[in-house]
Amino acid sequence: MNLPHEQGGLFTSKRFLPLFITQFLSALNDNVYKQAVLLLLVFSAVSEAQGALYANLAAGLFILPFFLLSGTAGQLAEKTEKSKLISIIKFCEIPIMIVGAISIYTSTVWLMLTTVFFMGMQSTFFGPLKYSILPQHIGPLELTKANGFVESGTFVAILMGTIFGTYYITQEYGELYVITAIILLAVLGFISSRFIPHSPANNPKGEFSFNILRATKDVFKALNAQTESVGKSVIGISWFWLIGAVILTALPSYVKYEMGGNELVVTSALVVFSLSIAIGSLLCEKLSRSRIELGIVPFGALLITIFMYLLSQTSSIDIHLPNMEKTPENLMTLTEVMAYEGMIYHFVWMGAIGIAAGFYTVPLYALIQQRTKEDSRSRIIAANNVLNALFMVGSAVLSIVTLSLLSWSIPELLLLLAGLNLLISIYIYTKVPEFFLRFVVYLIAICMYRVKIKGEKHIPEEGAAVIAANHISFVDWMFILAASPRPIRFVIFAPIYHSPVLNWLFKMAKAIPIDGERSNPKVFKEAFEKIADTLEEGELIGIFPEGKLTSDGNIDEFKKGIEKIIERSSVPVIPVHLDGLWGSMFSRKRKLRLPRLKWSLVDIRIGEAIAPEKVNAKLVRDAVISLQASDSEKA
Questions:
Q1: How far apart are the C-alpha atoms of 235 and 230, rounded to whole Å?
Q2: Structural domains of the chain sorted by starting position, each given as residue range(s) with its CATH number in brackets
Q3: Which of 173-187, 209-223, 442-456 has the lowest mean pLDDT?
Q4: What is the pTM of this model?
Q5: DSSP 309-366
């Protein structure tokens, strides 16, 4: 059961803070050890080829458990109380890090690689838990914020771990620093996990198999049973990890050969990219008004394409060094790079890509958590982890083919990624029009107006209901959709539905056309059939019971159609009152005026549900009128 969000601030609350600290320390420890070991493996190699082999082997061993054990991890997370399981997993990190410490102290290569594999295994079992546990303690209005914190914390931890491990392992007594850090972080992570609130098993009677193939097949079967939006969100997240893996892998070479910078410039670029993702993840919650706003996802995807293109073109600036061969001796320092004309744009576009990535991924994670059933949520996260690992392997293959076999430059690879990102985005938004629809709604209803929403908690998290609202303008449905955390199928007057300008938008919104019973009985009957079917499937229906736009700004009489709907489908009715659109260019007020942009307030008030047995047209109208804001509140 979700804990009410009124119980203190999210970040400082017991329902979130222990989990955040635990996952932060896990990501930090993983990267401290991995980066330290990576340098030790490379420098202990007798040749460049052997060093490359060790590096690739370590990366492969860390990812391998995600392929092999994600299915089993997802099933286990469904069957077990989560806080206890997290504590067990975090306790296992302590002996793993002790073995890791021994491997560093003795410089034993096979022991280092073994430790990396077990770290990957631990992350495999922790992943489904840290995401599936959030909806059990975080309400819908805080889910985006929680995911923003988790994503930003993860990338800050990756950054800190990478810098710490890379720097200290090369210093005098560096091995001692790293050994102390990894054991201390493991112990602290276990302690913080003990404070995570009790989280009951979502499916204690669910299937569990030690058969790797059977378990993996089970999690993908669960994924295939989800809605199209969940499936495509998983693909979208995996695609982001491919892009991120390519950029992070190519970053050192990009800085050296395209920017002419030294190791400190590489570190600076890594800081900019990682912190930008963290910033974008936190900004996402602000832009989405503390809700799961899918309209930001296409916006983020578009920005990624634009800024990746700009980065690929910025790198074409000719870098004149004292010697055309870029050796450590003639590479520029950070100060020299920043002083070079136009060089700042490399960092600007890297940062912009990172911020856009935060916009892109956070709503997708929140959507997966919200729209998957509790008894399959952990398995969906597990399937997501398998695909993430697969796409990351794909990133390595793509880099090898383009950079090594085809001898492309990194800017050319970035340009290819920009184009592929655009194509992948178009594919996803074509398959799931809701993403693009929410983007259009976000632009019109949120960016052009200042929207105030009150009572959104009255819209049920699941189950069927009818949303009944007054009708002021042609875009009322957009504002109501923007106020709802769930999709709504609106009933639209047929001539408006079939208008050439708006028909594509209404089809995307899966609106239901309706006409008069006398003028077009066939369309009238089909509309009520579709309404009943939609409510039977547990979805929301949106109607304007006045049957027409107001001609004077006042609420007209409600028609009996709402009673007919409830007679056939016994579901609650949610009254909604809109204010602030009368007089806009979308209303029927004679004076034509352009949108008044951000200073124009649209007030949306959502009332408590009316039980189906009490529903009649007059009662619903009275409920809508009672929600009207007073003049003092409008001011």
A1: 9
A2: 1-226 (1.20.1250.20), 232-371+406-447 (no CATH), 449-634 (3.40.1130.10)
A3: 442-456
A4: 0.82
A5: HHHHHHTTS----SSSS--TTTSBPHHHHHHSTTTHHHHHHHHHHHHHHHHHHHHHHH
